[in-house]
């Protein structure tokens, strides 16, 4: 009797057979590119802790959005960096605020060629950097913040967002946003709920990207990285409140959470490969310590394998191009 009888290596012998039996594929259409636009810029600006990612001017944003569409990305998620901030984050609600203006620009430029999404949160617009309005005790006032999110959702829908992404982790935010959109005649605008968002140190470079003024942390509203059951409860609540899609964030350190959420609900599940995940790979690659493209693809494949059907990643356009070349 020859030994071993069963040889798994047979199915690993050539690129062709490996491709044939591959269990997980990442498609460009599943990738969403987060993009930053800063009010008042005439030229795009690099972000030191996110090499390769830009703070766009309105013009460069439009051009980069078109390039991303040509690369085949499934969506674009917009973040605005205002020139001025105030305690209530009024620039997020103002139709002339940078994010709403940028949504209008991008929607006009790309039409239906990709899904235009917007981050629905006040932290980029508040002088204190928190995701909501502060109460007298200095903590974020949940219900006062909800009223602001409702207005912000309507402003983003009016500007042309096809999907809004409430990301402030206020209780009840999805229900309030859904009702506000419906009441204003935007029943067709979808809600991508940042259902599971951890109080993560992996958001560090993002705070540079949006020049966040935050002192302290977000632990009274974002989740404790130690918890999984709590995430399933957040997801259940968001789906009950009308979330069309749910997101887990960050991605790679939380693949168990992605898998558990995928098993728990039937709505599309997204994962956000956040700024710190990107920055670590770029830093190691710049030092020649890892093979950059292989690491990028390995992370995306792993997030996909864990169960995310949609991946937000700063590599979306580049990865979409690489994927198209490899098929
Ligand atoms: C909130 C928001 C944040 C990120 C996405 N939406 C920042 C935060 O909660 O501190 C982080 C994204 C990243 O790190 O790439 N507007």
Automatic annotation (TrEMBL):
One annotated GO molecular function: porphobilinogen synthase activity
Keywords in alphabetical order: Heme biosynthesis, Lyase, Magnesium, Metal-binding, Porphyrin biosynthesis
Annotated residues for binding of 5-aminolevulinate 1: 207, 218
Active site: 197, 249
Residues that coordinate or bind 5-aminolevulinate 2: 275, 314
GO-annotated cellular components: cytosol
Signal peptide: none
Entry keyword GTP-binding: no
SUPFAM superfamilies: Aldolase
Homology family: Belongs to the ALAD family.
Protein's job: Catalyzes an early step in the biosynthesis of tetrapyrroles. Binds two molecules of 5-aminolevulinate per subunit, each at a distinct site, and catalyzes their condensation to form porphobilinogen.
Name the record gives this protein: Delta-aminolevulinic acid dehydratase
Organism: Micromonospora rosaria
């Amino acid at each position: 009797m020859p030994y071993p009888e069963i040889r798994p290596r047979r199915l690993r012998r050539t690129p062709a057979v490996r491709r044939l039996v591959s269990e997980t594929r990442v498609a460009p259409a599943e990738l969403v590119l987060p993009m930053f636009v800063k009010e008042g810029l005439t030229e795009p600006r690099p972000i030191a802790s996110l090499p390769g990612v830009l703070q766009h001017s309105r013009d460069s944003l439009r051009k980069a959005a078109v390039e991303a569409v040509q690369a085949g990305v499934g969506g674009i998620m917009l973040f605005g960096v205002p020139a001025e901030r105030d305690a209530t984050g009024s620039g997020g609600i103002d139709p002339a605020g940078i994010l709403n203006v940028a949504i209008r620009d991008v929607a006009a430029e790309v039409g239906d060629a990709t899904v235009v999404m917007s981050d629905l949160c006040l932290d980029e617009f508040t002088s204190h950097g928190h995701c909501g309005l502060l109460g007298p005790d200095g903590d974020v006032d949940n219900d006062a913040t909800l009223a602001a999110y409702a207005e912000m959702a309507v402003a983003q829908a009016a500007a042309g967002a096809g999907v809004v992404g409430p990301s402030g982790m206020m209780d009840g935010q999805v229900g309030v946003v859904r009702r506000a959109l419906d009441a204003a005649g935007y029943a067709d605008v979808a809600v991508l709920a940042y259902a599971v968002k951890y109080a993560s140190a992996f958001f560090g470079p993002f705070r540079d990207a949006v020049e966040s003024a935050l002192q302290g942390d977000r632990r009274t509203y974002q989740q404790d990285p130690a918890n999984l059951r709590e995430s399933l409860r957040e997801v259940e609540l968001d789906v009950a409140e009308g979330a069309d899609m749910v997101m887990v964030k960050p991605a790679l350190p939380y693949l168990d959470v992605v898998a558990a959420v995928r098993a728990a609900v039937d709505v599309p599940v997204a994962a956000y490969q956040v700024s710190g995940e990107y920055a670590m790979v770029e830093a190691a690659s710049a030092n020649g310590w890892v093979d950059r493209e292989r690491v990028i693809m390995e992370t995306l494949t792993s997030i996909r394998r864990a169960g995310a059907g949609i991946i937000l990643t700063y590599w979306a356009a580049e990865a979409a191009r690489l994927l198209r070349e490899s098929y």
